[in-house]
Every structure is written in structure tokens, then in C-alpha cells.
Amino acid sequence: MEENFQAVCENRSGISLIPSAGFNNESVHLSKITSISTEHKFEYLLIAITEKVLKRIDPEILSSGKTIVVISSTKGDLDRNISSPFAESIAAFKKHYQFENEPVVVSNACISGVLAINAAGNFIKSGLYDHAIVLGCDVISDFVLYGFQSLFAVSSTPCAPFDANRNGITLGEGCAAVVLSNTREIFQKSAFQLFTGTSANDANHISGPSRTGEGLFRSVNKTLEQNHISGNEIDFISAHGTATVFNDEMEAIAFDRLQISEKPLNSLKGYFGHTLGAAGIIETAISMQMMRNNLLVKSLGYKESGTSKTLNIATENKSSELKTILKTASGFGGCNASLVIRKL
User: What is the pLDDT of residue 38?
Assistant: First the structure.
């Protein structure tokens, strides 16, 4: 995480032009982990990130019966098993660590990561578990890339969220983890308070977002209400910001309706690409690092406002006290999710 956060602080992107990666051998900009060549990439990444988690907590927590592992992913190991992309890899992952409890997979389009964190938080609040290890992982597959290309949704340049010249997403792949617990003492670094959020579905269209931002408006509104948090208390918004014309416009409308459009905001897709089911976890983890370092990181790729409602997009890195942040995500099928994190 430190290495990735350092790259973000230096405004370095992992996106590059990958030759012949797309349909009909078209070269496509992607944020791809080219250093890993194993055909078991999904499983490899899950184990790799779990090993990093084990260096930060007591290893006995992972094997405890009071710990649940929650995995956020949209496609799992799709390239190896298109009919059942999770069963084999998750079984192997469970066997590797001898988990006491069956891992839970959350797969609900691009809100999977935020949804997984909320689910894990609710598991702990209900008393079912004391700890939750939430992993977000997705790898780029031909199936997914060709699908987005067929929708003419892939940007011809590295994506530029909320910019006037944005023309689509840049896909990425990655894996990240966050740890939730009812015991503050398990954390080696400063811990945060999670205010579990809500999800809402406006069912506008199978792939197009609501033109009024209805689902996102409802999700954020409900998240703030149920946690008794005012919009004025939000110091920063980590938006979904895919860089498609309609998604970014939808988010701008929703934030304007919520009267929080003046809050500093960024999208991290310009750094990591859109990592689908991993996005909510990666972006939450980076936002927590921003809070630890009191640093507002600029939204990479943004130059000129490209939405009908003006947003306060971060155009440069800036020192700022970030006490309370809002994380949002939106996905195909009209799904939206949100959560709030606060410094303790």
C-alpha cells in the first residue's frame, strides 16, 4: 500500500498502452499487472494480499472462528472457468489458509467493494463476527474488455474522470484489503471509524446510469441520515468517477441534489484504471492513507469541467485536514452504494 500510495502522491499512473490487447488486436490503454504471468492470477493475488494483511495483524485472527473473510469481485477467475468463476479459486484459497468460516463473495457490479465493506461492518455490528478481512480483487479478461469495447465505453486515451474531453473508461486490475474489527488494539497503524452505509438501485437501465442521479442520491442521503451525519461534516468525497460521459454527469447531478457539490472530490480511476470489484476497496484504502497523511490528492486526468453541475474537483495535491470522508460507487443495473469513514 505504501508503494502504491507513494505513486499516487507523485501523481504517477499505472495506465499504459498495451499492444494488441483488445478485440481484433487493437492496442488499448489498461492498468495491467504485467509482472504476474500465472494463469491462476486471481487466486495468486488473493493469497498475495492476504500475506500482506498477515504482516499487520496477529495471524491467529485470520484463523479465528470469529473472523469472516469477505471477497469483492465482479468476475473472479473468469478466464479459467466462465461457467463458475468463483467456486474453484475460492475453495483453493480457503484450503490454503484453513479458514474456520466459508469466505463470503460479494459480486454486484462496480459497487461490490463498497457493498462488501458495508456487509462486513454489519456482520460485526450484529455480533456474528469480531473481525472481517475484506479483499477486493479483479483481473482483466478478454470477456470483460471486449464487452466494454462493444459498448464503445473504452477510452482511446488514459481515462479523464469528470473532464470535458473524457470519452470512456480505462480498465484496470488489482487487489487490495481492508480490515474491520470491534477491537481497536489489533491495528498497528491509526484506526478509523466506519459508518456502514447503504445501497440503492434506481433500475434506470442495464448499462446506463439514471439521468437524475436517483440511486446515488438515495444511497448517500440514507447513509448520512442513518448515521446522523450532516453533509457539512464531509471533508472529502472519493467518487466513483469512471470517466464515461453519462456516469460522471449522473454523479455531478446527485452531489448537487445532496448539496455537497462544493466538497473537495476526486476519482482515483486515472491512477489505477477501473478495477471493477476491486475499485471500492482500493479507493477506500487510498482514501484512508490520504486521511492519515492529511493530503488531498488530485484527480488525475481532469483539466476542465465537463459536467452540467459544477464540482470541486481536486486539481492539485493539497495539504488538508481530512477528518470525515464519503466513499461512493455506482454500477451497471442502476446500483449505487456509499459509506462514511471518520478519524478516531
Answer: 84
Pairing relationship of beta strands 131-138 and 67-72 according to DSSP bridges: parallel
Task: Express the helix, strand and coil content of the chain in percent, nearest 5 each.
Answer: 35, 20, 45
Asked if 245 contacts 253 with a C-beta cutoff of 8 angstroms, the reply is: no
State which amino acid sits at residue 69. Answer: V
Q: Give the tens place of pLDDT for each residue, 111-156.
A: 999 999 999 999 999 999 999 999 999 999 999 999 999 999 999 9
pLDDT at 33 over 80: yes
Instruction: Assign 133 to helix, strand or coil.
Output: strand
**Residue 1 clears pLDDT 80, i.e. is over it:** no
CA angle 19, 25, 31 (to 5 degrees): 40
The DSSP bridge pattern shows strands 174-181 and 192-195 to be unpaired
Q: Are strands 67-72 and 16-18 parallel, antiparallel or unpaired?
A: unpaired
Output the CA–CA distances (angstroms, integers) from residue 234 to 91, 213, 227, 329, in the order listed: 40, 19, 12, 16
Distance CA 214, CA 239 (A): 16
CB 329, CB 337: distance < 8 Å: yes
pLDDT interval class at 204 (50, 70, 90): confident
Q: Which residues contact 203 (CB under 8 A, 6 or more apart)?
A: 333, 334
**What is residue 68's predicted lDDT score, i.e. its pLDDT?**
98
The 10 Å Cβ neighbour count of residue 217 is: 22
Cell numbers given for 159:
481515462
Mean pLDDT of 72-95: 94
Gap between the terminal Cα atoms of the chain: 21
Taken as a whole, the chain contains a residue count of: 344
Cβ-Cβ contacts under 8 Å for 106 (sequence gap 6 or more): 70, 71, 72, 73, 112, 115, 116, 119, 277
39 — pLDDT class (breaks 50, 70, 90):
confident
The residues, any chain, with a CB within 8 Å of residue 300's CB and separated by 6 or more, are 11, 13, 268, 270, 271
